[in-house]
Amino acid sequence: TPIPELGVETPQPEELRVELNPISGERPLTAITYRIFQERDLIRTFSIEPHKLLSYLFALEDSYQQVPYHNKLHRADVCQSMHVLLNSSGIKDVFNEFEILAAIFAAVVHDVHHPGLTNPFLIKTKSDLAILYNNESVLENHHIAVAFKLLQADERNIFSNLSAEQMETLRRRVVDMVLATDMAKHKTLLADFQNLLEAKKMSGNDYLTLESYDDRILVLKNMIHCADLSNMTKPLDTYSKWIDRLMVEFWKQGDAERDLGLDISPMCVRSPTTKDKHQIGFINSFVHPLWETWGSLVYPDANTILETLAQNREWHEASLAALTSSTTD
Ligand SMILES: COc1ccc(-c2ccn(CCC(=O)N3C[C@@H](C)O[C@H](C)C3)n2)cc1OC1CCCC1
Ligand SMILES: [Mg+2]
Ligand SMILES: [Zn+2]
């Protein structure tokens, strides 16, 4: 039976069309994710009931908090970036539909109910979340718990037609991928990724063959981490909008730290040079090494991304030079 254009039979197609209309910007997360599920035929493959998918995605959107950066727009962005990365040359035929389902789902839920505060802040203020998760990937554990809690309602359980075993493996993959978005895991994740690619190069295969769960999930963990760190690889006008959102979120945390008599986190200091300095530092320390490694896996697909990343870094260096020269003379 053909799936209706809007996903569900509805007596009010116009209302639903407006709700789903990404242009209206009302529900960007639902619009993008529903479209990706359709394009990848996930709804049919896993017999997902369309009305349940819509209910689940609506719940995800509504549970987002009014934070400037870590909101539904960021999750829609990471979901769309994941969708693109999954099609990269060299890996597009590697992952099966179960892994793709888990990867898209992980991307769309990876920051759900984010409070707009960092893990260090939640830990040093002894927040309920830090107590609950013993200071270990506090936010990421929370996002996963909320995502699966929302699935428990029958009208939102999009995986109701998966077997118990399939559900268990999907859950394992989603937990592994969302936990991998914690910056604290970056160094180990990237080192393991580089070791894997080195070993594959030694084996002489010109295409990637991944047998073990650990190898396969390692690539998916780095993929979602790349998607989460993709702002700097986007055209400057898009990238600078993300920076502005993030700085507002960080400055609010800085205000909270000051009000609590705590040290203000370096990234949360309101100063004209903070933005450029930290972006340059972050690109040099984390973002470029990660994307360069990803670029070697999907060569030459990531060349444009690496060029844009270099241009964006130069833009920050130029604006920093302009700022510091104006303040010195
Ligand atoms: C547009 O700028 C950024 C966009 C995304 C990120 C970034 C790094 C790691 N993630 C993954 C989630 C994470 O771990 N955190 C914890 C902390 C690093 O703040 C991040 C925001 C979230 N996301 C960093 C960005 O800039 C750096 C942070 C302030 C100046 C330089
Ligand atoms: Mg996160
Ligand atoms: Zn994120």
Question: Can you describe this structure?
Answer:
It is a single chain. The chain has 329 residues and is an all-alpha fold. 65% of the residues lie in helices and 0% in strands. The protein has helices at residues 13-20, 28-39, 42-45, 50-62, 72-85, 97-109, 119-124, 128-132, 138-151, 164-179, 186-203, 213-228, 236-259, 272-297, 303-328. The protein is globular and about 65 Å long. The chain starts with 12 loop residues before the first helix and ends with a helix. The model has no long low-confidence stretch (mean pLDDT 92). It binds the ligand COc1ccc(-c2ccn(CCC(=O)N3C[C@@H](C)O[C@H](C)C3)n2)cc1OC1CCCC1, magnesium ion and zinc ion (ZN). Zinc ion binds at residues 74, 78, 110-111, 181, 228.
Describe, in short, the structure shown.
This protein has 329 residues and is mainly alpha-helical. It contains 15 helices and no strands.
What is the secondary structure topology, with strand pairs?
Elements: H1 13-20, H2 28-39, H3 42-45, H4 50-62, H5 72-85, H6 97-109, H7 119-124, H8 128-132, H9 138-151, H10 164-179, H11 186-203, H12 213-228, H13 236-259, H14 272-297, H15 303-328
Helix pairs in contact: 2-4, 2-5, 5-6, 5-12, 6-10, 9-10, 10-12, 11-12, 11-14, 14-15
The structure holds the ligand COc1ccc(-c2ccn(CCC(=O)N3C[C@@H](C)O[C@H](C)C3)n2)cc1OC1CCCC1, magnesium ion (MG) and zinc ion (ZN).
